[in-house]
Every structure is written in structure tokens, then in C-alpha cells.
Amino acid sequence: MLVGSLVEHPGSVIGRRARIREEHEMGFKKGPLGSAGEWLWGPDEMRWRRTFSGRPDQTASARDFATTLFAGSACVDVVEFVVSELTANTIRHTRTCEDGGWFGLELVYDDPAYIAVVDNGGRGIPAVKQPVDLLATSGRGLYLVSQLAYKMGIEGSPGLGHKVWVELDLDKPMGGSFGLEVSAAS
Ligand SMILES: Nc1ncnc2c1ncn2[C@@H]1O[C@H](COP(=O)(O)OP(=O)(O)O)[C@@H](O)[C@H]1O
Ligand SMILES: [Mg+2]
User: Fold this and answer.
1) pLDDT digits (tens, 9 = 90+) for 175-185
2) Over the stretch 85-101, which tens digit does the pLDDT of each residue have?
3) Nearest 5°: phi and psi at 52?
4) For helices 141-148 and 76-93, angle between their N-to-C axes, nearest 10 degrees
5) Which residues belong to any copy of the Histidine kinase/HSP90-like ATPase domain (predicted)?
6) Ligand 2: distance of its center to the CA of 24 in Å?
7) Would you say the pTM of this structure is higher than 0.70?
8) N or C: which terminus of the chain has fewer CB atoms within 10 Å of its end residue's CB?
9) Which phi and psi angles does 55 have, rounded to 5°?
């Protein structure tokens, strides 16, 4: 049973303090609110929530929204891929695609970065399928997401809808993670 499960990948995650230290070393001047890093990485987290109507074209809008927020971060291509896969799943596999349906995107710009997508449920359970043929054109999306994630969780039920969330290392680009080109779902 994958609902409520957690996939964890150990790895170094650079924290806010290290990032602020880096900014100091780069010579950013201190202003009345502190340094640029202290202000940007201050104690309040940057959490964004947005809803989208359940149309296929809205997955691109969600992707653009997320990549704008993470622009300049090493993980922006991972963010793009994850948001594309998770939002496409809400359209393909849930009542989100029905009249009046919607999906929700939640982003936290932090280290680790947090991405969650909620859907309207109704048709089964998100499943990380393994083993998987990486060259397959379907059935590998959540597996690839799980491999890119520092942590991943699946919560909810077909009746209530699901939330699929991941934490990502802000400083880790997609690179050659899978030894092949992975193209995001449209
Ligand atoms: N949000 C969701 N709600 C319900 N079921 C889902 C959801 N996302 C994925 N699934 C289920 O998990 C399976 C694996 O998803 P995924 O790896 O993205 O492959 P694909 O979307 O290509 O089928 C899907 O085939 C579907 O049965
Ligand atoms: Mg999919």
C-alpha cells in the first residue's frame, strides 16, 4: 500500500545558514534588513498555493508558475519535470478532468524545495511502479519522480482525493540522473 508512504533518499541538503554564509562570502552588502541572503532566506518560508482548472492546458500553466518561482535555482529542471508529471496525472487519472474539476499546486521555495499536487480523486491510487522500463512512454512518471526526490509522499484516498508531494535538493540539477533524456509530460 503506497498511500501515506514515504520514499527517502539520503543526501546532503545545504541549509539556509550555509547559503547565507555563501552570500556573505560573495560580498553582498548588508542593508537595513540584513544581507540579501538573510532577507531572502529569512525565518518566514516562501509558500505558494495556486489552483488550476482541470484542463490539460493547465498543466503547462502550473509548470510555468513553478519554474518562474524556482528560476535561477539548480533544481529548476527537476521542478519542471515533477510539476509536469504530477499535474498530468491529475488530468489523466482523476476526476480533476471532469466538469468543474481542479488541481492544486503548493510550492515552498526552501532547501529542500517542496512541491505538492492535490487532485479530486475518484479513480484509483497513485502507484510508484517498479521495476520499470525507463524507455517506456507510460507507467514510469511517478517512478522517475521518486528517483529525483529527496523525499516523496502519497496521501489521501480515491474518495477524498490525493496529495502527492516531494522534497527536492535545491542545488541538484536533473543532469544525467537516468542516463537518458527524460521529457516532461505535456
Ligand atoms: N493522482 C493520481 N490519482 C490516482 N491514480 C494515480 C494518480 N497518479 C498516478 N496514478 C496511478 O499510478 C499509476 C502510475 O502513474 P505514472 O507513473 O505517472 O504512470 P502513467 O501516468 O504513465 O500511467 C497510473 O497508471 C495510475 O494508475
Ligand atoms: Mg503519469
Assistant:
1) 866 644 455 55
2) 999 999 999 999 999 99
3) -135, 145
4) 150
5) 53-164
6) 42
7) yes
8) N
9) -110, 150
**Residue listed under C-alpha cell 524556482:** 70
The CATH number of the domain covering residues in 45-168: 3.30.565.10
The burial class, CB within 10 Å (0-12 / 13-18 / 19+), for 110 is: middle
Rounded Cα–Cα distance for residues 17 and 13 (Å) = 11
Residues with CB under 6 A from ligand 1: 85, 89-90, 92-94, 119, 123-127, 129, 138-143, 162
Band of pLDDT at residue 79, cut at 50, 70 and 90 = very high
DSSP tag of 131:
S
> pLDDT digits over 32-48, tens only?
777 777 777 677 777 89
